[in-house]
Design a protein that fits this description.
Blueprint lengths: L4 H26 L5 E9 L2 H13 L3 E9 L5 E11 L1
Length: 88
């Protein structure tokens, strides 16, 4: 099955962002850091939808940890946001 080159690049960008976040989480755990975090991943192709999803998450204590734009496997581009919240 042949995929367009752009689709592979979009997935690799998303994977790199996720791997980086989880790598930071693992290194903090290995260093004995007492802080723990909850994470959420939001992805949509419309900025208005992203805004509607980010507002309630912010009210629940989540902060924006990272954001990227990548190609969607269904065509077009999607906005991907990683949110984190410190667990007490």
């Amino acid at each position: 099955m042949n995929r367009p080159q752009g689709s592979r690049q979009g997935w690799s960008k998303t994977f790199m962002v996720l791997a980086g976040c989880f790598g930071c989480l693992l290194s903090a755990t290995a260093a004995g850091a007492p802080d723990r975090f909850d994470y959420k991943l939001l992805a949509t192709n419309r900025t208005s939808t992203m805004q509607k999803e980010l507002i309630p998450e912010g009210e629940n204590g989540f902060e924006l940890a990272g954001m990227t734009v990548s190609r969607s496997t269904f065509g077009g581009e999607e906005l991907v946001a990683i949110l984190q919240r410190r667990v007490r």
